[in-house]
Amino acid sequence: MEREISLYDSEHSNNVPLVNAMPFSFFRKPLRELFVQAFAKHEKDGEGPSANTWVDVLRSVKKKLKKCRKKAEYFYPSHFHKCPICAKEKRRTTFT
Q1: Nearest one of 85, 34, 73, 79 to 57, comparing CA atoms
Q2: 58 and 87 inside one domain
Q3: Which of 46, 49, 60, 81 to pair with 4, CA 20 to 30 A apart?
Q4: pTM beyond 0.85, yes or no
Q5: How many Cα atoms within 13 Å fall on the side-chain side of residue 79?
Q6: What does the pLDDT read at residue 68?
Q7: Same domain? 76 vs 56
Q8: Residue numbers of the domain that contains 88
Q9: Rounded to an integer, what distance in angstroms lies between the CA atom of residue 66 and that of residue 75?
């Protein structure tokens, strides 16, 4: 943040999200667009999304979440057929 670089900014493709972070493709387009508007350095000249815009999009995202069948604390976007968080954890434990 100090260097004004977003890990999800396509201009800085060498930046890798933290191990526990979901890839940018995990999010639906409206939320990805808000991240770019708010955090991409080339967008800083303009005004970022308003708080009301964030609330509207996040409420919409929340309505479309599925609850994981295996772990009650996990929720994920409805466009996934299975819990991607569990899948990511399974891949991680397979390689360690």
Answers
A1: 34
A2: no
A3: 60
A4: no
A5: 6
A6: 94
A7: no
A8: 66-96
A9: 5
What digits encode the pLDDT tens for the residues 35-92?
888 877 655 566 788 999 999 999 999 999 999 999 999 999 888 889 988 988 887 7
Looking at the structure, do residues 85 and 38 belong to the same domain, yes or no?
no
For the chain, what is the domain count? 2
Cβ partners under 8 Å of residue 47, min gap 6: none
**In degrees to the nearest 10, what's the CA dihedral of 71, 74, 78, 79?**
-90
Give the Cβ contact number of residue 13 at 10 Å.
Answer: 7
Whether 2 and 45 map to the same domain: the answer is yes
Query: HSE on the CB side for 86, CA within 13 Å?
Result: 15
**Cβ atoms within 10 Å of 76's Cβ, excluding its own:** 19
